[in-house]
Design a protein that fits this description.
Distance between the termini: 17 Å
Largest sheet: none
Structural class: mainly alpha
Helix content: over 70%
Radius of gyration: 20 Å
Strand content: under 5%
Number of strands: 0
């Protein structure tokens, strides 16, 4: 993404572009909140939330962390798509405060009630979608209206999550709807940025086979994946769902292979994107396997491939690349960036492996949690100086 045009702005640098506050706060919140999750999981800590411990954990991944990073990305990408000015200053600050209010409302919902928590929490995604819709429509950039669909599904599943948690006592369908929205967002945005960045690097550094351009195959693979996810949300134990997930896994593996990722292994910032996306077909494959061999593969193995691997990997890779590029630094991951992403891979693989063995009591779960914290708190510490100060062009 090129640096968006900007109007004259003299306020705090961190409010000059959407990626600055949302990447920083989202990463720190995600990394630090894991310190609250494990004690809750083991019954050693009780938060003032009306959500069950696992529900709070799932909710804050899909409706806390992911929307923050997606907002940071979209608020920086949409001005490039539309040619309009980015949201800055007080308008951006208002959305940041609304996001923070949502995290507090959910965590302390036992004090304010589930209705108030729902309204405050869901307001953020609705506000973000409205801002993006306004910019795309005003810029007559109609083809990018499709990014509103996963945002709308995410907002709807957030409402359903609150309703299920209150009236049923635990979330169920809404968890899978959240994964549906997240994976769809990754397929749409990943399918745009991964081939583009890979092509740019290969043309410059390793001429030869280039990523396949977007084609009807991509549309077909995304459509099949969405259908499979819808079936999974409604009928998670059906053999039909398992078959659809298996087909989706194959198509997504083929889609990723078409992007020539193996030819870009010399550049961590490029292969990180491919590695993060790899967990999309892995998630489909594990869920398919669980439907046919439930005694061998846990249904939550694929869930963690989506949540820890795909969501975690893609967000970290995109945050690092965008933060470097938009703050005027060289597009090089360096040792620190590479270590952070390797920590994320350790977290994803460990969390998946934990579902096969000791997911409730063993060391693998602790390794996954600690590695996740290193990846995202580490990102916050490493990138905080660049995200909070002006680049030379500003």
């Amino acid at each position: 993404m090129a640096i968006p045009r900007t109007r004259s702005y003299t306020g705090p640098a961190i409010l000059s572009y959407g990626f600055r506050p949302f990447f920083l706060l989202g990463a720190l919140y995600s990394g630090l909140s894991i310190l609250l999750w494990l004690p809750q999981f083991y019954g050693e800590l009780s938060l003032s939330t009306l959500f069950a411990p696992t529900d709070w954990h799932v909710h804050e991944l899909y409706f806390g962390f992911l929307p923050a990073v997606a907002t940071g990305f979209l608020f920086t990408a949409v001005p490039n798509w539309t040619g309009r000015m980015p949201l800055q200053g007080n308008g951006l600050l208002a959305l940041v405060l609304l996001w923070i209010a949502g995290r507090l409302a959910v965590t302390f919902s036992s004090h304010i009630g589930w209705q108030a928590a729902l309204i405050i929490d869901v307001s953020f995604l609705i506000a973000v979608a409205m801002v993006i819709a306004r910019e795309i429509i005003a810029g007559e950039n109609w083809r990018n209206l499709k990014v509103l669909l996963p945002l709308a599904i995410l907002a709807a599943s957030n409402i359903a999550f609150h309703l299920e948690a209150h009236f049923i006592g635990a979330s169920d369908i809404s968890r899978r709807l959240a994964a549906l929205a997240a994976v769809t967002l990754i397929m749409l945005i990943g399918g745009r940025v991964i081939p583009s960045f890979t092509r740019n690097w290969l043309v410059r550094e390793n001429p030869g086979r280039l990523p396949a351009p977007f084609s009807s195959f991509d549309l077909f693979s995304i459509a099949v994946a969405v259908v499979a996810l819808v079936l999974w949300a409604a009928l998670p134990d059906s053999r039909l769902t398992g078959a659809a997930m298996a087909v989706a896994a194959l198509l997504q593996f083929l889609r990723l292979a078409r992007w020539a990722g193996l030819r870009s292994l010399r550049d961590p910032l490029v292969w990180m994107l491919h590695a993060g996306y790899l967990f999309v077909p892995v998630g489909f494959a594990l869920i398919a396997a669980a439907s046919f061999w439930p005694d061998v593969v846990s249904p939550v193995a694929g869930v963690h491939a989506f949540g820890v691997g795909a969501v975690g990997g893609m967000t970290l890779a995109v945050m690092m690349r965008a933060s470097l590029g938009h703050t005027g630094q060289k597009l090089k991951a360096g040792l620190s960036g590479t270590v952070l992403f390797v920590a994320l891979l350790v977290a994803a693989v460990s969390r998946i492996l934990a579902t096969f063995s000791d997911s409730h009591t063993g060391m693998t779960l602790h390794i996954a949690a600690f590695a996740w914290m290193i990846a995202f708190v580490g990102f916050g510490l490493v990138f905080a100086p660049a995200l909070s100060r002006r680049r030379r062009a500003e």
